[in-house]
Design a protein that fits this description.
single chain; Arc Repressor Mutant, subunit A; 10 strands; binds S-adenosylmethionine
Length: about 325
């Protein structure tokens, strides 16, 4: 990329997320379509659509054949029906997260969260106020969770157990995979009230009666109170968002809920294995510089402080995630 192309890279990503929101990848994935046909189906201004499609051609996402446009196979994950769709991840990164990066200068100057500087409130408060951004966020988390969940269920033996709580489990992607592989289990997603309402509504609309009978959503605040008495507590991609003090508070709330002697906490985090130059900066833009990058050494110290013993660790193949199985120290 030359200097001008680099300067315009945000325009490319916005063009792609706009196309995703319009449903263009779905329309041109199986067969090329002509501009007029697309404009009629989408009910948009044909001249502006031509410009957008040319931008996508220039980005290498779409190929043009005469008057027709088609999605390049390399970008099939922008389709909504792709088994590994990343359309919401793309939209989240290109829109809400990119907006937050407008606060980068503030973060570099002060160490404070650029996200909060731009939106006036932290991430999860902002998501309470912006239903569209929140839906995209939940769906993006589910898209990112699916491959990790598939690897996780191959790793952990749930036989002989009956209940699992996923703390901060979002729309339930991880639990769907766990319950799918373990028909004897029931699961509860413990997340913010609005996330639970959306998750429960999506589950009801799915019409999957077996899953509806075994998966439920419990509006919770993981700083205060969680469903108690379960066999397993899952905690995936939660701790890395918070300061060390908040991480310990979350872990202590979980420990309080683990009333069964054989209960286990299964932490799944994309632990840093070496300090990458930019990972602490991205963390600071989203959360502020008092949220340190999480590596295994730090996580073990926090678990210890919250009263957990680490019983085993495993790196989940073909993912960035490490699994730590923990029990509450009872002395
Ligand atoms: C980064 S997302 C991870 C979601 C999911 N565990 C996954 O890996 O896909 C963090 C989750 O924590 C939830 N969360 C944030 N604050 C919370 C709180 N105070 N109580 C419960 N859940 C909370 C968010 O709503 C979100 O679903």
């Amino acid at each position: 990329m030359n200097l001008v192309e680099l300067a315009m890279s945000g325009w490319y990503s916005r063009s792609i997320s706009t196309a995703v929101r319009l449903g263009i990848p779905d329309l041109i994935a199986d067969r090329p379509r002509k501009l007029d046909e697309l404009a009629a189906v989408l009910d948009v201004d044909p001249a502006m659509l031509r410009g957008l499609l040319r931008m996508l051609v220039s980005a290498g996402v779409v190929v043009r054949d005469g008057e027709a446009f088609a999605l390049r196979e390399d970008f099939a994950e922008l389709r909504s029906d792709h088994p590994r769709t990343m359309r919401n991840v793309f939209t989240l990164f290109a829109e809400t997260y990119d907006d937050a990066w407008a606060g980068l200068g503030h973060t570099v100057r002060t160490g404070e969260s650029g996200y909060e500087h731009v939106f006036g409130v932290p991430l999860y408060v902002h998501l309470e106020r912006d239903a569209d951004a929140a839906r995209v966020f939940d769906a993006a988390m589910a898209e990112l969770a699916r491959p990790v969940a598939a690897e996780f269920v191959r790793h952990h033996d749930f036989s002989g157990l009956s209940t699992v709580v996923d703390v901060g489990g979002g729309s339930g992607a991880l639990l769907r995979e766990v319950l799918g592989a373990n028909p004897h289990l029931s699961g509860v997603v413990a997340d913010r009230g609005t996330v639970c309402r959306r998750g429960a509504e999506d589950l009801r609309r799915s019409g999957d009666q077996d899953l509806i009978a075994r998966l439920s959503f419990a509006p919770s605040d993981f700083f205060a109170d969680l469903p108690a008495g379960s066999d397993r507590y899952l905690l995936k991609n939660v701790l890395f968002d918070w300061s060390d003090a908040d991480r310990v508070r979350i872990l202590r709330t979980i420990a309080d809920a683990m009333t069964r002697p054989a209960a286990r906490l299964l932490v799944l985090e994309p632990l840093a294995h070496h300090e990458e130059d930019w990972s602490s900066l991205t963390r600071a833009v989203f959360c502020g510089s008092d949220v340190p990058v999480l590596d295994e050494h730090r996580l073990r110290a926090l678990l210890d402080e919250a009263g957990f013993d680490v019983l085993s660790t495993a790196r989940l193949e073909s993912t960035q995630h490490t699994l730590l199985e923990c029990g509450v120290r009872r002395s």
